[in-house]
Amino acid sequence: MIHLSLLPATQIEEFYPTFTKVIRTQFPGYGPEVIDFLLNRMYNIPNLRIWVQRGDKIIVGAKNDDTFVGFAMIDTLYGGVSFCRWLGVLADFQHKGIGTKLIHEWETIARTQHAHKMEVAGQPTAKVFYEKMGLGWEGNRKASYFGIDQDLFGKVLGSPDPSIMTK
Ligand SMILES: CC(C)(COP(=O)(O)OP(=O)(O)OC[C@H]1O[C@@H](n2cnc3c(N)ncnc32)[C@H](O)[C@@H]1OP(=O)(O)O)[C@@H](O)C(=O)NCCC(=O)NCCS
Question: What is the pTM of this model?
Answer without folding.
Answer: 0.97
